[in-house]
Fold each of these.
Amino acid sequence: MQVRNLIRAFDGQRVVNDVSFTVSPGEVACLLGPSGCGKSTTLRIIAGVDMQDSGSIHVDGKLVCDTVYRVPPERRAIGLMFQDFALFPHLPVSENVAFGLKGGYRANRERVGALLERVHMSRHVDSYPHELSGGEQQRVALARALAPQPRVLLMDEPFSGLDERLRDGIRDDTLALLKDEGTAVLLVTHEPHEAMRMADQILLMRNGSIVQQGAPYNLYNAPVDRMAAAFFSDINVLTGRVQGALTQTPFGQFLTPGVPDGSEVEIVIRPQHLKIDFDRGGHGPAPTRENGTAALARVTRARYLGRESLVEFTTEAGAIALTATVPGVFLPPPSTPMWLMLRRDRVFVFPKN
Ligand SMILES: Nc1ncnc2c1ncn2[C@@H]1O[C@H](COP(=O)(O)OP(=O)(O)OP(=O)(O)O)[C@@H](O)[C@H]1O
């Protein structure tokens, strides 16, 4: 599916602002962004229940809609699975899954049976929706959406109604089935964890625009700006002023090429990429190429989170507040002096807006 230059405004306000992307068969793309950024509107336009002001959508190279031509929603070969995936309460599972198929369950026993087996729901073929748990209903809804073999499947927060502990298992099962079916999937979510787990490609959306797109690895390890970095984890931010393409900090100098002298930059690092060393009578570790210069800091608070500990510090120079995560149990008392270093290969430097 190719989406090109979609624009949609409400009351003169662009809610979808020049959005373009491609999803290939068998690929899962996640449209990720905070509430209100325009994700659902984009999905609704692709589904055909809303209309763009400009831009076009192609499926398998064929035009589905632009501003003059429009295939009706039911003839788009696009499947839908929305948040409240409502199954038809008066129909058994078999008829729910067969709903989009010509001839109903009677004419499609094989396809329906195969799909139900695939989602581990065969034994519920005659059950009614109210007899199923939320997770089971979700599995049936997935089978129903895939039954007519759509070329594209649109999923809007499909797992948000489920118990947190069930979600990862259902996400993995869903992903396996989607891959087998070879459908192009566009999944809308506001949860970075979900996008990282499901996506081949993440489309990071903010204020109606896609600000970054790529594989989860790229978005996590090469964010385009501070907000993109902050979307995937807590971050530490140091600010500094550029002088001769360098920015001076308590952790040594950082290269900031291309940023004009005198302008401010933000140096961003995730908590797990801070290195901690003990104080040895007022001395810390020697500077290295990998970790730069160590800065003395004091513990302000330490908390145990289960898999890791979260330790907050304030640097002696500049009184910068920083947070580090350390695997396992590490709970130094407040005021403990420690030396902090920033893993240089994990630091992002952005001009300050
Ligand atoms: N029919 C409409 N008329 C006016 N404004 C609308 C309409 N539909 C959506 N909007 C506005 O467009 C913006 C984007 O909404 P949209 O539902 O696409 O965002 P979203 O990213 O999916 O958020 P959420 O996750 O909360 O659904 C919101 O500010 C919303 O109020």
Note: The first strand starts at residue 2 and ends at 10.
Amino acid sequence: MDKVLIRGLSIDTVIGIYEWEKQIHQTLVIDLDMAWDNRAAAAGDDYEHALCYETVSNRLTALITEDPIELIETVAEMVARCVMDEFNVPWVKVTVMKPGAVKHAQSVGVEIERGHI
Ligand SMILES: Nc1nc2c(c(=O)[nH]1)N=C([C@H](O)[C@@H](O)CO)CN2
């Protein structure tokens, strides 16, 4: 299966369940694996057939910074839904990490897979 990948997309936003978290920005780090047939883009060296990782990254940053969110689970679902609905991606794996959220952990996070290949 071909994929287009995004690694370490860093998004500063209002995220968390506690009152103090609603007053600050924190960083989320998102990894995406998106199923995409890359053959047409490669065959014609043609951007029109490519799934543009830059466009996806910009859209997700806008989406996730629109409103405060409590759970990183919600972020993961929003990302998966957006990529599938707006970019016609049939399957996606989304990892959302919240570094520094737990004192003695380097990072914590969630991972989901949605759709079918
Ligand atoms: N499964 C989750 N657990 C927790 C979350 C979360 O989003 N998903 N969030 C918090 C707090 O916001 C935490 O990040 C503050 O340090 C706690 N547990």
Note: The chain has a mean pLDDT of 98.
